[in-house]
Amino acid sequence: MVGITLFLSTVMIIILARSTQLLYGPRAKPGKVSAKSIGELEVRIKLNSGSAVLEDMLSLIRLYKKANRFEDAERYCKQAVQIAESESGDASKDLVPILNEYASVLTGMRRKVEADKLKERAKKISKAS
Question: What is the mean pLDDT of residues 1-19?
Fold first, then answer.
């Protein structure tokens, strides 16, 4: 009796996992990312300031995304948006790649509505420029 219950519980877990993937899509397997490269970028970001740091932030965001560390990537996305807005204004073309990366991070976190808003904002800025 216990064996049958355990078997049925396992089957239910598998079914739930598959139905979740059907609804939300498969979660990507983390790619291999060097902790050294992440550390180097974090140090360079801390040592630099202003718009000079934005390319390093984008590189770090991409590495975090590849490693499925979406919360860390989102934190740097928010910082990058703030820096770009303060340096160039909230309608600057410098924001477009940052907003697109941010949208990609949010999509990875299954926050599609927020991601779509950022994509739309990036598209408006691109058209205006």
Answer: 64
